[in-house]
Every structure is written in structure tokens, then in C-alpha cells.
Specification:
Helix content: 10-25%
Order of helices and strands: EEHEEHEEEEEHEEH
Largest sheet: 11 strands, mixed
CATH class of the largest domain: Alpha Beta
Number of domains: 2
Number of helices: 4
Distance between the termini: 31 Å
CATH topology of the largest domain: Pseudouridine synthase
Amino acid sequence: MLIDPSRLGFPILAQDEQTLVVSKPAGMATELTNDPRGVAMVSRIRRAAVPGIQVRLVHRLDRVTRGVMIVALTKEAAAFYGEQIREGVWEKYYLARIPRPRPGKFPHHSDLIGKHKAHIKEEGTHATIVRAGGKQSFLEIVAIEPAPDRNGDCHALIRLLTGRLHQIRVMFAALGLPLVGDELYGGATGAGAGGGPMYLEHIALWYVDCATRDIRLAHVADDPERESLSSKMKQALTRVIRR
């Protein structure tokens, strides 16, 4: 065992000599430029690793986002996964909580299902939708269903096709459906219908394993920290993970 799970404070889903798969909690930074207390995810992993392990990040999640992450434990694994990301090999799915679509604009949830395109310009730690000059960005909305425990809210299951800064957050805001609780992009906050904490989860990731070259799924089937899902959303998620 190269990484001691008791020293992390978050779950390890799988590990071998090349790759570590973890579930990052919401509220934890993936990496910090200055981290003297070692609170960021990558700092915790390095502290929990046996001597000589080269822990390298190959992708990141926003602090507010929870979910599955792949971490390379060798230089070769980092290069391998980096190439997969550049070639679009990874298949990434997210779960987000959004306000219920307005009937006047979207009479049916099905009106939102499918691929969406935007041009995103990154300005420091903020992203903006622009008509020209930004990076082409794509995502696919796979399903939208009411959130059982959140009156007035829905869950959206999303396949992220490109990996821009705050892409899901800014593109849903442009649709008039900013993630609930996302103050940066206009999401409602506070208690009651249409408000509350932000919820964004990297729920499933298909990737090619560095050591075996097998196609693998990173996913927590019964995650106690996951929000309750409707039966129809569970069915949509099952189709994604049992393709």
C-alpha cells in the first residue's frame, strides 16, 4: 500500500503502483499555491505516501465540487493520463442541482436534453460566456429530474465534453439555470425553495488504466454524501455506469 488511507480524511477508491483513485470532498481545495498546514487534497496525499512516491495531479476539481479524481503516482502515469485527457479519452459525468426550469422558457425538461456549445473566456478565477475570442466548450445534458428533498430544485446529469474553468457553472448560468447556491454565477442562496448550498459532483469517470490498459470506471455506487436522487435520475445514472 503506497498511500495510507487513515491519513487522508477522504476515501480511496482504488490504488496500485501507478494510480490512485479518490473521492474529494466538497470544500477541499485540490491544490494550493501556499499550503503550510497541508490542507489541500494533494498535500494530504503526499503526506500519506510512502517515501519516494511522486504524487502528480493530472486534473483538478473546484473547491466547491466533490467527487472522483485520478492521481498519478509516477511520472510515467502522469504523462499517460495527460495524453488521455488531451485526446479526449476520458468520459466524465457530473451531477448538479439547479432550479426547476421555467415553463415559459423550457416547457419540458426534454427541451434542455442534448449537447450545448459556448465560447468561454477565462478571466483570472472567473469565466465568462463570449460571442468570439473564447475557447469552444461543449457539454451534454443527459437527464434532468426533480430533486426529491429539494422542493423547487432539479438534478441535472451532465457529460462534460471539454474541461474549461467553471464550465458547467457558467454554461448553466447562461441557460438561465445557475447552480443553486452558486453566488459567483447568480445562483440562489439561503434556505427554502430554490436556495441552499451548492451541489456539484464529479459522479463518474471512465478512463484507461495506466498499468493494465483496461477501461475502468471511477464511481461510488452508494455514496452517503450524495444527495437523494429520484428513481428516474437513478435510472439515467445506471445507464451511464452500465453502458
